[in-house]
Amino acid sequence: MWDTIEPQLSSGPVSYLIPIQKFIFAFSSLCIAGADPANSPDISENGYMRMDRWLAVQLLPSIPINAFQPLVEIFLHSFAYPFFLVSGDYNKLYEFIETEGKEVISRGQTEFKLGKEDVIHNLLFILGFNAFGGFSIFFLSLLASLESDTTGIQEKLRKEVREKAGSGIGLSFSSVQEMDLVQSFVYETLRLNPPVPLQYGRARKDFDLSSHDAVFKVKKGELLCGFQALAMKDPKVFDDPETFVPDRFTGEKGKELLDYLYWSNGPQSGMPSVSNKQCAGKDFVTLTASLFLAHLYLRYDSVTIAGASFSGVEKPKP
Fold first, then answer.
1. Which of 84, 170, 182, 205 lies deepest, with the highest CB count within 10 Å?
2. Is the pTM here over 0.85, yes or no?
3. What residues contact 220, with CB distance under 8 A and at least 6 apart?
């Protein structure tokens, strides 16, 4: 991605919207399905757009649109869109996974006893909704958090990354776990900008739901909705909750706050299991974002961001 963006900066600001989607699609395809888009010219160039279109017709019925009411509710939010609108895109993505993801497909068949078609459909759902869709929202928030550098955070991030990765161990999911500030920056972005802010669940039994100063009776079968964007600004848990504090989750106190960081269906300190609705890719998300941020500050001293564009980068001095 950076090799694509950097040469264009001499001509002015470069939008990162398309480059970052191409990067996310390629990275997720390789990590999740073992499928390299570089082996397919069409998918390499258009795979992210095919995924965007497939996601769009499924998400549009649930996206709030305040203008042109009640026409929007009648014509956009009242029915599911027919598959034929995106069948061509989906079939191309299916063929790509079928051809390039043979090893992962084989594991799905042998380890999980799924049929070949079920494996591919599941991989595409995880790749599209969970990885590509979520990252496409989250990475924009991550870069937006770097736009206003009023606390010298880029210098601090650069210092930590080069101290931790400069010893020859390089960058990996393991090495970024040693970078407290990098991870804290990622957590704080998730706190203020959860990629999926609304979570739903139906009560399995009667129970009492407690807040700081009240108790609510919940009956079995009732539908509950959680709005993380509000809960993550609770002033009784987070100091100065409306402000982005990059090092909020560092140190012992910061680690304790992870018990209250809900950006998926459970706390960051929790673990996904068959008995909860915690995001199965919780750690994959935070570590991938940390890896992206760490790579940025190994490559550059700083970046200048304006809106949805990079307007400049500062390379390390020889």
1. 182
2. yes
3. 203, 204, 205, 206
